[in-house]
Amino acid sequence: MPVPLAIGLGFYLLDENFRFVMSEGVRLLMVADLAGLRAWGDTLGFWAPLATFLLMVIQALAAPIPAILITWLKPFWSW
After folding, report:
1. What does the alpha-carbon distance between residue 12 and residue 20 come to, in Å, rounded to a whole number?
2. pLDDT of 3
3. Contact criterion met (CB below 8 Å) for 49 and 76
4. Which helix (H) or strand (E) holds 21?
5. Of 9, 76, 14, whose CA–CA distance to 41 is shortest?
6. N or C: at which end does the chain have fewer Cβ atoms within 10 angstroms?
């Protein structure tokens, strides 16, 4: 298991707030709510790039989630 995935899984299992935030991100991905994802990402501030990375990992493991949504979000948090 890659180290970032193991760390993300550890946080998911041990931290209720992290679990809630990531579950909300996954829910927004599943319903393809781009505006909701942008608002969700704005609330994460400094942690947005890490959350985006974890969503990309989740998307890779759950193929029905559209990857293009995550790709569209990334430029908003890069700079």
Report:
1. 9
2. 75
3. no
4. helix 16-30
5. 76
6. C
Q: Positive or negative, the Cα torsion across 15, 9, 47, 75?
A: negative
pLDDT at 7 exceeding the cut of 60: yes
Six-digit token pair at 58? 């989740």
Is residue 65 helix, strand or coil?
coil
CB atoms within 10 A of CB 43: 11
Q: Dihedral of the CA atoms 8, 13, 18, 19 (nearest 10)?
A: 110
Query: CA-to-CA distance for 79 and 4, rounded, in angstroms?
Result: 22
pLDDT per residue as tens digits for the range 21-50: 888 888 887 787 888 888 888 888 887 777
Tokens of 51: 């959350």
Structure tokens at 10: 């550890």
Q: Give the C-alpha separation, 51 to 26, whole Å.
A: 10
